[in-house]
Design goal:
Layout (H helix, E strand, L loop, with lengths): L9 H7 L10 H13 L6 H14 L21 E4 L2 E7 L2 H9 L6 H4 L14 H10 L6 H24 L7 H6 L8 H22 L4 H12 L11
Helix pairs in contact: 1-2, 3-4, 6-7, 7-9, 9-10
């Protein structure tokens, strides 16, 4: 059985100890985080919400390991755990706790964390370029600086591909991807827009690599953008 900390509440211990060793590595931490959230949900502190958010991000980093949907329990959506879009057998963390922390106090001492919730307000939704630039203006080396640079770079990578299809006169250039990104097009000549978007995307990829040099996926994405190659889409899923 899991042991209880002296500072843990009795209800948290009782809930967690219902989980037997032998279940996945995610079962006990998910249960503990959920129960702590439930216990303090009437007046959660921004600090604890941020810390729980950070723990969930460490448990479920983008490249794995991946939790199974079997690890989900009723109510876990309240802490942002939900089936992954297109891969419902796995679990994704939506960032809900960070968004809640920012909503409670956007000017808290933990703003360097919580402001990131405004960059990608919806899982799988488009990032907000203006929010991303604001985050990097305030916290150029903040805890989410690499993530924000990466989100902006991937967004611009997608926008580049949308414009490139328009420039090339692709018959399906104005499909659902175009609908996602059309509001970010200007009245400038398309070739001029494409070149500017490409330069900006490469800039943000370089910023990611300056902060996290060991990022092979970022290097590949940057090479694809530099060559004008479609290496896949990052946002606006089917």
């Amino acid at each position: 059985m899991a042991s209880c900390s002296l500072i843990a509440s009795t209800c948290v211990c009782a809930f967690v100890q219902q989980l037997v060793i032998g279940q996945s590595q995610f079962a006990i931490p998910f249960a503990r985080i959920y129960q702590e959230y439930q216990t303090n949900r009437r007046s959660p502190s921004v600090e604890r919400l941020v810390m729980l958010d950070q723990e969930l991000r460490r448990l479920l980093p983008p490249g794995g390991p991946f939790a199974s949907a079997d690890d989900l329990r009723a109510g876990y959506e309240e802490i942002g755990l939900e089936p992954t879009l297109f891969e419902p057998d796995t679990v994704i963390y939506s960032g809900k706790l960070l968004a809640e922390a920012h909503k409670r106090d956007p000017s808290s001492p933990f703003r360097r964390y919580t402001l990131y919730a405004t960059v990608s307000p919806e899982f799988n939704g488009l990032p907000s370029p203006s929010a991303g630039r604001q985050y990097l203006k305030e916290f150029p080396e903040g805890p989410f600086a690499a993530d924000t640079n990466g989100a902006l770079a991937d967004f611009l990578n997608d926008l580049f591909k949308v414009i490139k299809r328009l420039v090339e006169g692709a018959p399906d250039a104005k499909d659902y991807k175009y609908d996602c990104y059309s509001e970010f097009l200007s009245k400038a000549p398309l070739a001029e827009q494409m070149s500017g978007v490409q330069r900006s995307g490469l800039y943000y990829y370089r910023r990611v690599l300056a902060l996290q040099p060991d990022s092979p996926n970022v290097r590949e994405a940057m090479r694809n953008l530099e060559r004008g190659v479609n290496g896949g889409w990052y946002y606006c899923p089917d």
